[in-house]
Amino acid sequence: MNLALPPRGSASQGHDAPPTSRGIVTSTQGSSLADVLERVLDKGIVIAGDISVSVASTELLNIRIRLLISSVDKAREIGINWWENNPHFSAQSKELTETNRLLLERVESLESELKSLRQASVRDLPNSTSDSLDLLLKDL
């Protein structure tokens, strides 16, 4: 007993049907994962949902979920390109982190210098109003 399936892409209606270069895809034939993934990335898919948690008609939690799955080209086509300007996803990430670290060190240095200048100026100020009057009279 020889049971042979017709090759993929050929018509399976009868023995005399000529093979076709492209068969009609039906739900019984199925699709490979690669075919499904190619279609999803080419067209894109949006999954949206809302989750709400309420107790005694008082809303405690509301979560809105929006998920877009598409190829990079399709995302750019519809105006989504957040990864291009995000420093965590670019080559400039390390450079920006290093620049930020250097700036923070500089700010700390300037703050400590300002603090020491303030302490020095407080020590040089006269202790009382009579001392300040004496200094003014000497200057005159």
TrEMBL record:
Coiled coil: 93-120
One MF term in the entry's GO annotations: structural molecule activity
Intracellular or extracellular location(s): Gas vesicle
Family matches, as Pfam families: Gas_vesicle (PF00741)
UniProt keywords, alphabetically: Coiled coil, Gas vesicle
Keyword presence, Coiled coil: yes
Keyword Coiled coil: yes
Top-rank taxon: Bacteria
Region called Disordered, residue ranges: 1-28
GO cellular component: gas vesicle; vesicle membrane
Homology family: Belongs to the gas vesicle GvpA family.
PANTHER family membership: GAS VESICLE PROTEIN A1, GAS VESICLE STRUCTURAL PROTEIN 2-RELATED
Protein name according to UniProt: Gas vesicle protein
Classification lineage: Bacteria, Bacillati, Cyanobacteriota, Cyanophyceae, Leptolyngbyales
